[in-house]
Amino acid sequence: MNRKLILAVLALGGLFFSAATAAPAPRRVMNIVNFVRGCDPRDPKLDLVKPFRAEVELNTKNKLENTVLLQYDAMMRADMMAVVKAADPDRTEFGVWFEVVKPMVEKAGLVWQGRNGWAWDWHIKPGFLMAYTQAEREKLCDELFRFFKEKFGYYPKSVGSWLLDAYSMDYMAEKYGVQAFCVCREQDNTDAYGLRGGYFNGIYYASKKNMLSAAIDMKNAVKAPVIKMLTSDPIYNYANSVGPGPGGPSTLEPVWESGYTKAIVDWYFRIYAEEPKGLLGISLMQTGQENSFGYEAIMKGLPYQIRRIAELRDKGVLTVEKMCETGRRFRAEHKENIPQTQVALEDWRKMGRKSVWYNSKFYRANLLMDGKRLYFRDIHKMSDTYEEPFLTKVCTGWQALYYTPPVVDEFLFKDKTHSGVMAFDGEFASLEVATPDEETLVATATRTDGSKAEISLTRGSIFVRGAVLTYEGRFDFVRAIQQVGDALSFFFINYDYKVKFDAVYEPNMKGYVLKPLKGVIALDFGRYVE
Q1: What is the CB neighbour count within 10 angstroms for residue 294?
Q2: 3-state secondary structure string, 361-428?
Q3: pTM tops 0.90
Q4: Residue 91 has pLDDT above 60, yes or no
Q5: Local structure of 242: helix, strand or coil
Q6: Does residue 151 sit in the same domain as residue 298?
Q7: What is d(CA 405, CA 398) in angstroms, rounded to the nearest whole number?
Q8: Is the pLDDT of residue 209 over 90?
Q9: What pLDDT shows up at residue 25?
Q10: Residues 45, 116: one domain?
């Protein structure tokens, strides 16, 4: 057992908590990213310039570093380029928002396959790169970057889209020197794209075969890191698994209830920046909005957020950076993916729920306390060989679903008779966290009878002491989970993978039970790397 695993096991026994060994405080970073479309056929009368101008004015007034991502058709409009010229040139970064539009397709010598009268479409086909062959994707990238350089005199360093493919990301990073990408946060049934897996929030080097998965070996990585957009709620941005969240997605987006309700916005800033618990690596927040929501909707929440960001910047709590700066600094400081956490031990709904997310290059896991229940709601593996669905294929439908290999996933594996979670035995009264080193988070859960369960999340493994784990999940997505030697064996969408374990394994009709072996249950995600 290596030194880090020994330290983790000691931490589980409560022997390793001291101020001298506490993990260094992570950088607390805010990216303000506003993305701008030039048309929206869903509402042709919508004023797309007014919200863009207001966003620029807010950032300029408060002297905030910010990033503006422009769609191809936005750069074609003189009124929008006039707003560009009015922005603070020292504090504003301009990059590209990569949704595919008709004039770009035709300029690249391709055929637009959109709905009649629609020059932009939120469907994957024709509005996103997955709807095109790899050769066509290269042509679209080349045309977008050519046009941007014609307008600005240089190539963009930041690229964003609700959904990007790994092939195009790698192409843009290698050919044009892109320094940062951003993509949609986790979501299951919003818009035309679903994403389950990967880092829950934060920044990571993506696999060249699946932009959602953190690369394990850097030879398989896209060299420019990718950022999950718009600051996910660690408790409620998970498929409404603990009841409905606020109106709209549970993120910091200013048009939704969670982004314009001051008490909830303040909660986001507390858990990510002001009073963070258990944070590792980098605490990364992002806010901003596309202009398609219109001035009134965006201004419900954005002015308050911007004022709070400026206040926290002035107090030294938050570092406000352009997106390219965050990507450039991450690449300079980290030669591979690093552990990052998102911890919410305070529930803005006052329901007492607590959530701990741990993300590393080998896996991610979510520990949730809901009432007196404690369980893993989610565990996903990372993989350098698990391909995204349209890496080489062309999407001919309206939607695309992205995954990483699931081990536990309440959303995917829950039904009327299966909980879909890996539950701890007993009833619990409290959950606390500590970070004994820069890669380890230790959660201590105390039961109502005073006994404790201790969970150590390390870069490659999970250790559990003082508990029995019971997994129940439906198997129509995953072949019946079985023990193969020293591993649990899984199968998901034509992909085989394993997780090494040290525990007493007992299968049952609904799943399996893991009991401690020599006092510890250990799941090792670094032993079998597919």
Answers
A1: 17
A2: CCEEEEEEEECCEEEEEEEEECCCCCCCCCCCCCCCCCCEEEECCEEEEHHHHCCCCCCCCEEECCCE
A3: yes
A4: yes
A5: coil
A6: yes
A7: 23
A8: yes
A9: 81
A10: yes
- Pick from 281, 304, 292: which is nearest to 225 by CA? 281
* Residue pLDDT, tens place only, 212-242: 999 999 999 999 999 999 999 999 999 877 7
Q: How many other C-beta atoms are found inside a 10 Å radius of the C-beta of residue 55?
A: 27
Of the residues 306, 333, 360, the one at which a domain ends: 333
Q: How many CB atoms lie within 10 A of CB 369?
A: 23
Beta bridge partners of 158: 180
Q: Are residues 82 and 206 both part of a single domain?
A: yes
- Mean pLDDT score, 40-46: 94
CA-to-CA distance for 528 and 118, rounded, in angstroms? 48
Residue 360 amino acid letter: S
Q: Which of 302, 333, 364 is the last residue of a domain?
A: 333
Cis? peptide before 103, omega within 30° of 0: no
Residue 365 belongs to some domain of the structure: no
Is residue 396 classed exposed, middle or buried when 0-12, 13-18 and 19+ CB atoms within 10 A define those classes? exposed
Same domain (yes/no): 295, 419: no
Q: Is residue 396 in some structural domain?
A: no
Q: How many CB atoms lie within 10 A of CB 213?
A: 31
In this predicted structure, the answer to whether residue 520 has a pLDDT above a threshold of 80 is yes
Cα separation, 323 vs 31, whole angstroms: 6
Residue 480 pLDDT class (50, 70, 90 cuts): low
Q: Which residues contact 154 (CB under 8 A, 6 or more apart)?
A: none
- Residue 315 within any structural domain of the chain: yes
Q: What's the mean per-residue pLDDT of the chain?
A: 93
pLDDT per residue as tens digits for the range 369-397? 999 999 999 999 999 999 999 999 999 99
Place of tokens 């404790």: 452
Sign of the Cα torsion 138, 139, 144, 145 reads: positive
* Domain-embedded: residue 400: no
pLDDT of residue 18 exceeding 50: no
Q: Is 362 left (phi over 0), alpha (psi -120 to 50) or beta?
A: alpha
Q: Which positions ≥6 away from 324 have C-beta within 8 Å?
A: 67, 93, 95, 157, 158, 179, 180
Report the alpha-carbon distance of residue 9 to residue 18 in Å, rounded: 15
491 and 464 within one domain: yes
Burial class (CB in 10 A: 0-12, 13-18, 19+), 430: middle
Q: Where in the sequence is the domain holding 211, given as residue range(s)? A: 27-333
Q: Is there a single domain that holds both residue 1 and residue 54?
A: no
pLDDT band at 439; cut points 50, 70, 90: very high
CA-based nearest residue to 193, from 174, 180, 212: 212
Domain identity same for 114 and 247:
yes
The reply to whether 67 and 163 lie within a common domain is: yes
Number of compact structural domains in the chain: 2
